[in-house]
Design a protein that fits this description.
This is Protein arginine methyltransferase NDUFAF7. Keywords: Methyltransferase, Mitochondrion, Transferase. One of its GO terms (molecular function) is protein-arginine omega-N symmetric methyltransferase activity. Arginine methyltransferase involved in the assembly or stability of mitochondrial NADH:ubiquinone oxidoreductase complex (complex I). By secondary structure, the protein is α/β, with parallel strands linked by helices. The protein folds into 2 domains: about 290 residues, Rossmann fold (3-Layer(aba) Sandwich); about 55 residues, no CATH class. It is about 35% helix and about 25% strand. The radius of gyration is 21 Å and the shape is globular. Bound molecules: S-adenosyl-L-homocysteine (SAH). The site of S-adenosyl-L-homocysteine (SAH) has 21 residues, from α1, α2 and α4.
């Protein structure tokens, strides 16, 4: 899975080119930020609001993991520009050079070259005037107060699959047939991975016959927590996933929006697995405050996405005001004729399948408890009270 998804030459994202579309209507899948600017704007507002509530003053780093075509960062930056923040720098973690080119093209005025001998592989300025850096690994990001965001990043990281036969847990492998085709097979018995990765709680669940986990996602989440607990900051990850209750395997593949055999065309089909936020929570809850997973629908609604939609629709009707807004560079208004349809997808089907999950350092516990949690993750009572107050 790792090679097929992320190897520089043969991997799915490494092969990205404008002709062979990956994202969007003509590609293999569509993501929330690709669907509508509303998603990125809401994430931008959330980041700024939570930042203000930490009381942090001075410089801060906004990190996005796996930015794809950079639509999310573009919309977040447009939202942040409204707050006149001069202390932010942007840091993108991306392993595909082809996508780094695409992101730079979209976010910056000029193209540049990869640098050598620096922790970052590229440096530039965004159209909104913010310093922007690219890295191949989270480890290379400089120390400092950091806010992490990612959408549909963890689901691309490799998973291990396990199956129970009798009392024994076996690992599912990918092997070759005599003809040289890929096929699934299982280990003869328990191995290092079944013994090292499957938690006691899963083994003790009698009815459970399958389990899937991504230790690589665990490493990423641990790296985030190490940083936010050492230098300050917080994180918001949004992904297709569940709270640990899914008891079937989810590793699958897409091509042209259709589900296909994941072993059929490695490097050409999009491979994905649902994120097990329950498992990830067990890895960090001793060191971090964990909020969610909560449905994207609930998260975006608490943030007031409906108000923003209404405003956009109104602007679409009123050309004069629209031109004024554009000239003031408040938000770049996309005259998307499908804005209502996009909104319905974001809040409807995608709104229940996608989950938001946030991490904060435990030092912020008192403040966050007083607030009833970060916005988007408020308890039902607090959310209702907030809506009534407004
Ligand atoms: N966030 C984007 C696209 C998600 S697709 C959106 O919402 O539209 C997954 C992204 O993660 C791609 O940019 C891919 O190149 C990147 N990616 C996948 N595996 C990675 C890895 N191991 N390290 C860094 N980036 C990775």
């Amino acid at each position: 899975m790792k090679t097929s998804v992320s190897a520089p030459v043969v991997g799915y994202y490494g092969q990205f080119s404008r002709d062979q579309k990956v994202f969007g209507e003509k590609g293999d899948f569509i993501t929330s930020p690709e669907l509508t600017q509303l998603f990125g704007e809401m994430i931008g507002v959330w980041v700024f609001h939570e930042l203000a509530n930490t009381g942090h003053k001075g410089s801060w780093q906004l990190v996005e993991l796996g930015p794809g075509r950079a639509q999310l960062m573009n919309d977040v930056l447009n939202a942040l520009a409204k707050f006149n923040d001069n202390d932010v720098s942007v840091h993108l973690v991306e392993m595909s050079d082809a996508l780094i080119d695409e992101q730079e093209n979209f976010l910056c005025i000029y193209n540049s070259e990869n640098t050598k001998g620096t922790p970052h592989v590229r440096k530039n300025k965004t159209r909104t005037g913010v310093n922007i850096y690219w890295y191949k690994s989270i480890d290379d990001i400089p120390d400092g107060f950091t806010v992490f965001i990612a959408n549909e990043f963890l689901d691309a990281l490799p998973v291990h699959q396990f199956k129970k036969t009798g009392d024994l847990w076996k690992e599912v492998y990918v092997n070759l047939t005599k003809e040289g085709d890929l096929r699934f097979m299982t280990s003869k018995g328990e191995n290092l991975h079944t013994k090292g990765l499957i938690p006691a709680a899963i083994r003790n669940e009698n009815s459970r016959l399958t389990w899937e986990c991504s230790p690589e996602s665990g490493t990423v989440v641990n790296q985030i927590v190490d940083r936010i607990t050492t230098f300050g900051g917080f994180s918001l990850l949004v992904d297709y996933g569940h709270d640990g209750s899914r008891n079937t395997h989810s590793f699958r593949a897409y091509k042209n929006h259709e589900q296909v055999d994941p072993l059929s065309n490695p490097g050409v089909v999009d491979l994905t697995a649902d994120v097990d936020f329950g498992y990830l929570t067990t890895l960090v809850e001793d060191r971090a405050l964990v909020y969610g997973p909560i449905e994207q629908r609930v998260f975006l609604t608490q943030l007031g996405i409906e108000h923003r939609l209404r405003r956009l629709l109104q602007i679409c009707k009123n050309r004069e005001e629209q031109e004024q807004l554009i000239s003031e560079h408040i938000f770049q208004i996309l005259l998307n004729p499908f804005i209502l349809e996009s909104y319905n997808m974001l809040i409807g089907d995608m709104g229940t399948k996608f989950k938001a999950w946030a991490l904060f350092p435990k030092t912020l516990k008192f403040i966050l408890d007083q607030r009833g949690g970060p916005v988007g993750f408020l308890s039902k009572e607090k959310a209702e009270k907030k809506a009534n107050d407004e």
